[in-house]
Design a protein that fits this description.
The chain is α+β, with helices and mostly antiparallel strands and 74 residues long. It is built from two helices and four strands. The longest helix is centred in the first third of the chain and has 5 residues. The chain is globular, with a radius of gyration of 11 Å.
């Protein structure tokens, strides 16, 4: 099962993008509700390695399960 970046909790530091071994994390368009850049995980490419969770400085911004309702993907 893929991981999920909670769009409205993402603070846009992109540590997850740099750490992802399969490059499945992408920047979304515009800003989220807290006015930061935001990122999304391609569920079909995620290998569930959890590196993104380990490097993310924001508690609860990345979930270890697929939750499409919490993540924008465009």
């Amino acid at each position: 099962m893929a991981h999920t970046i909670v769009t409205e909790k993402c603070i846009g530091v992109a540590e997850c993008v740099n750490a992802c071994p399969v490059a499945c994390i992408h920047q979304g368009e515009g800003k989220n509700s807290i006015k930061t850049n935001w990122y999304w995980i391609d569920f079909s490419a995620c290998i569930d390695c959890s590196i993104c969770i380990q490097v993310c400085p924001t508690q609860g911004a990345i979930l270890d399960r697929e939750e499409p309702s919490l993540q924008k993907s465009y």
